[in-house]
Structures are given as structure tokens and as C-alpha cells.
Amino acid sequence: MTTRSPLTLRLQPGWLAEQLPPAMLLDPSTDSPFLGRFLRIFEDVSAEIQDQVDELPSAHDANVAGIDHVRWLGSWLGVEIDSSLPEPTQRRMVRAASRWLGLRATVPGLRNFIAEATDSACLVEDNGGVFAIGEQPTTGSTVTVYIEELGGLTESQVQVLIDRSLPVGSTAQLVVGPLPRSPSR
Predict the structure, then answer these.
(1) Which among 1, 34, 104, 172 has most CB atoms closer than 10 A?
(2) Are 62 and 96 in contact (CB under 8 A)?
(3) Alpha helices of the chain — where are they, by DSSP H?
């Protein structure tokens, strides 16, 4: 056996036949190694299956997976990706969504997700918070997202990314341009 990677063993041709007793490898009537050739068929099928299994880790890597699969991964992460966008932009959006999914609906999660998805500096202001019973505002919180550039996306595409990353009951405002010097609080 040879080592293909730390996690994968690549079997040499004949590995299945080598596990049989030698007497079974020769056909006594013709003195030909029929069984060995027959087992080679199963070895070939096994090799194809092993190749598919070996490709599984990269199938879920937005850097190397096929672009159709990248868009499918994005849909699982709640990011609808427009197929007309350049391929690097699509991959960047999926990488950002997967990296920041655990912080979804939080200011750091939204800031980092939008900054990475647009490849632009981002600032998020949120007037929400934690309130005692009876002291909560009657309207939902408003989240203002400032980004310097759209990173190849349209304002409506960025707005959809923001809206899908907000806490329940919140609304968002998108401002494209220079970032304010300090949050307005």
C-alpha cells in the first residue's frame, strides 16, 4: 500500500486478489489467472468510489468546489447568489456566510459578514439592546450599515444580505460611502 495523503490510503492493483489463498487465483482447467482478472473489475469500481470519497472535503470548500455547488452551498447558508456575478464574488460571499454564520443577527457577525462579502470596510450601528419587561421600545430596532463600496454587488443585493442577517423585528438602512468617524450614539 502507498500513502496518498495522511487520511487516504491508495490501494495498489491486485490488492483484492492478494487477500485470497494462492490456489484460488489460478483456474486449473486453463492455467489462466481468471479470478485475478475478475477481481480487478471490483478493484476498478472500488477505486472510482474511493476517488469520489476523497473529493468530499473539497466539495464543500468554496475555494475549489464547482461554481454550481458553491451557489448550492450558499443557499444552505441562507445566501441567494446571483449566477451573473463574477465567480470570485460568488465564492467570497459563500466563504463570508459560512465564516460568520455562528454570529448571525449580532453586530459583530453582521459587520464582518458584510465587510467580507463586499470586500469593503463596514460599520454597523444598532439601537437595539436588552430591556427589562415593560421597558422595551414599541418599535423594533433599526440597524444602520455603512459600507465604503459595494464590492461588485448592487445595493439591492447587499440589502438582501443585510436583511437576512438581522434579528427578528429589526429593520436596516444601508449607507454606501465614506464611513462615519464614530458611531452616532
Answers:
(1) 172
(2) no
(3) 34-59, 67-76, 87-100, 107-118, 155-163
